[in-house]
Amino acid sequence: MLNEFRQFILRGSVIDLAVAVIVGGAFNKIITSLVNDVVMPPIGLVLAKVDFANLFIDLSGKGYKSLSEAQQAGAPTINYGIFLNNVINFLIVGFVVFMLIRSVNRLQNLKTSSSTAEEKKTKDCPFCKMSIPLQANRCPYCTSELDK
């Protein structure tokens, strides 16, 4: 069982997944900082200097001035500002992943189209079955004369 587990862990796909999770965690911190420190302040400024992270509904009815004050008092709150930040976070990550996958798909399509273009430039010799240029009159491998 230990040998099986070792083989499982050392498989390339498991190691790739581990690297992806680590890089994804670091990427999440970057996106969170982008949303909280770069995107949301200008939006808050446009919307009458509102700090989205401080938008909340106080369920206790005591009228706390800030989210941190309500949380320190242990009051139940609905933190819809933090939720909005997380939605914007998700949209940015989703867009970046979309652009990454789109780029990879384009590269794969270029590779596929170049290989099909190469295939159209050659044909198989009917005698020796080697790949030869379409315009060839004689096979360079078996020297057979070819019909045009």
How would you sum up this structure, described in words?
The protein is mostly helical and 148 residues long. It has one domain: Non-ribosomal Peptide Synthetase Peptidyl Carrier Protein, Chain A. The chain has helices spanning 2-9, 12-46, 67-72, 80-120; strands spanning 57-58, 77-78, 122-124, 131-133. The strands form two sheets. It has a two-stranded antiparallel sheet with strand order 1-2. A hairpin with a 6-residue loop joins strand 3 and strand 4 (131-133). Helix 2 packs across helix 4 (80-120). The N and C termini lie far apart (64 Å). The model has no long low-confidence stretch (mean pLDDT 83).
Structural class: mainly alpha
Helix content: 55-70%
Total helical segments: 4
CATH domain class name: Mainly Alpha
CATH architecture: Orthogonal Bundle
User: C-alpha Rg, in Å?
Assistant: 30 Å
Q: Sketch the topology as an H/E string, one letter per element.
A: HHEHEHEE
- The tally of structural domains comes to 1
CATH topology: Non-ribosomal Peptide Synthetase Peptidyl Carrier Protein, Chain A
Mean pLDDT score: 83
- Given as residue ranges, the uncertain stretches (5+ residues, pLDDT < 50) are none
What's the N-to-C terminus distance? 64 Å
Strand content: 5-15%
Q: Can you summarize the main beta sheet? A: 2 strands, antiparallel
